[in-house]
Structures are given as structure tokens and as C-alpha cells.
Here is the input.
Amino acid sequence: MKKTGYDYLFKPINFKGLRLKNRITMAPLYLGYAAEGGKISPLLLEHYKLMAQSGAAMIVVENSSITPAGSGSPRTIRCDHNRYINGLANIARTIKDQKCRAALQINHAGRFAYTPDPVSASDIPAFNRSPRPLLKKEITKIQKQFANSALRVKKAGFDLVELHGGTGYLLSQFVSPRTNKREDRYGGSIENRIRFPLEVLKRVKDLVGDFPVGYRFLADEWLPDGLKLKESVVFARELAKNGVAYISVMGGTYESFFLPDIIKKSRKPGYMVFLANAIKKEVKIPVIAAGRISTPARAEAILKDKKADLIGLARMLWVDPQWVNKTRQGRDKSIIKCNPKCDACMQLVMKGRPAICPKWTKEKRRAYKDKT
Ligand SMILES: Cc1cc2nc3c(=O)[nH]c(=O)nc-3n(C[C@H](O)[C@H](O)[C@H](O)COP(=O)(O)O)c2cc1C
Here is the structure.
């Protein structure tokens, strides 16, 4: 095979008994391809087959809900009951058949949930709705729901489960000083605010045994009164100490994503790499960097400079599912790039519609429209 010059990108990595064939992973990307009720649709399976055929070493499947009350949307995948295991097994098999590792992200959306009665750490309103602060017994119930869902992920045949501590969802609502105003042992100091996700992790690990558990990690909320790196590094150290398989770093929440300064920042190539770099300095487990890593050269430099151990591609891989194969074959100049000024995918999914990329050919766009 032609030498690519991307030795770091194509170097395998081992962790928690798993071998990844290279350093490229798909970061979770909800595109609204499941059917109503979170049912596993032919389009969803087709999508993940394509992503797994990309040559990436691991696909982290989009967020799935641990309880209907914590679901992000009507098309969010479900893992809150054993009846969903068969459908989830179809996704795992589809990905693994392509010699690619499969992970599923599990989530409770908390104050952003698609429900008339959202819950959170405290009653800080989100988009004009005030969530109800969770009672202690409800906290325990949700922790058990995370654990039971993780066990279903294992039973469905995935290689790993990822806890969604990003995007400002429930796990991070406890960690944030902005959304957690509790006066009990789950609120106040950073040590108290990280108690809830650490207890979730413990319950998950106690139930799934040696099954690897990754963590999507909110390093900075990018809000004046929000969580900042200074505190999140404390949490990263504890996650590593408590046995997570990797930390996948991101910044921002639904309350900061659409602020003019943040929109500007997030159009820049590699806009979240500095956060991954800061976390990597604190831990000895693999760290995933994501965020407009649009070229193999950039990805290679991130690894070479030890800013991260793994690359997470979300929209970058969806826009061009041949990103990895083209790189390996030395055809990286032909990679189709996501337009930083376009947020069509986000706009469509926020309207409850399946995502279609303007960069695709007319035929591909039409084919996706026909299937949704
Ligand atoms: C439409 C859309 C859906 C997303 N869904 C998820 C998700 O389900 N879970 C998650 O952790 N991150 C999610 N993300 C964040 C991505 O994983 C990733 O961090 C971000 O898009 C930056 O990477 P990229 O520039 O390669 O897309 C989503 C992002 C977008 C734009």
C-alpha cells in the first residue's frame, strides 16, 4: 500500500482489553435517522454501516435514552427497556461486521429533555422551562437506570458503553456551578458536584463488570457563570482514577452553542483541541479530541504533538464517509469538507427532521429524503 505519511493516525492503540486498529473514531452524532419512538429504522442501520465502512476504528453511536423522561427527542434511540436489546444488537452487528469497534452513548437529557416535566440538579430554567430538582430517591433511581441501560448495551453486543456527560445534559448539570445550586451532598464544592456522575459510573461498573465504559466530557460550558477548565480537570482526574476507558472531550452546551462568540469560535478548525490537550495533561488514559478536525494533516499533528490520543470525527465523517479510506490511500486532497458556515444538520434535527447535508450530491440527498 502507498505510504500515507500519517503514521500516528494509523497506529493501533490498546486500552481496557480492546484494540483499535487506528486512531480515528466517530464522535456521537444524532441525526434523527431513528423512527418515531426511537425505533431502529433501515435508514439508521444503513447510516451506521456506511460510517463503519469508513475505515474508522470505532463508532460511538449517538445518544440513547436511559428513561423516556430523559429522552432528547421523539427520534432518540432508546435503551430503557430489555425490549430494545434486539434493535440495539442490530446496530452493534452492523458496525462490527465492518471490523470496526462499536460503542453506544447513553444519556439522560435532564433540563433539556423532551418531556413536559423536566428534572435537573436544581430549578434553573432552560429555554423558559423550570426543571424540578431531583429528590435523593430519584437520584438513586436514575443511577440505576444508567446501570441497567449500560448492561443492555453490553448484552446487545457493543464493545463499549459511553456515558454522556457533555452538551449540558443531566450528568453535566450536576457538575456545573450554574445549574447545580443544591445544598445537600450533591451540591456546593466541585467534590460534591461530581458525586452524582461518579456514583453513576460506580453503579454502571458494578453491574457491567469488566465491560469498558467511556465518558463524554464537558470541559468548559463557555458561559460566564458556567463550568470552567479549572474545575473540570478535577473531575477528569477522578474519572480516570475510577476506571473510565477514555475521556472524549467537548466544550459548550445548548445554552452556549448559539451565542455569536461561540458560533464564531466553533467555526475554526480544531476548535476544541485545546480542551482535550488540557485534559490529557491531567490523566494517563486515552483522550479523544473532536471539533472540526477537517484534514488528516491536522489530525496527525494533534496526535504527534500529544494533544490527544484519538481523533473524534462527527460531521467530518458524515459529510465524507470516505475520510479515512481516502487518507489511507493518499487521496486526502479529495476529502469533502464540512462548510463551517453551514449548520443545516443542526437546524434540521432541532426541528425534529432527519439531517441531510448540502455538500452531498443531489442523488444522495434525494435518496435520504425518500427514506425518511
Ligand atoms: C447535529 C449534531 C448532533 C450531535 N449529537 C451528539 C450526540 O448525540 N452526543 C454527543 O456527545 N455529541 C453530539 N454532537 C457533538 C459531536 O459529537 C461533536 O463533538 C461536534 O459535532 C464537533 O465535531 P465535528 O466538528 O467533527 O462535527 C452532535 C453535534 C451535532 C452538530
The first strand starts at residue 13 and ends at 15. The chain has 14 helices and 13 strands.
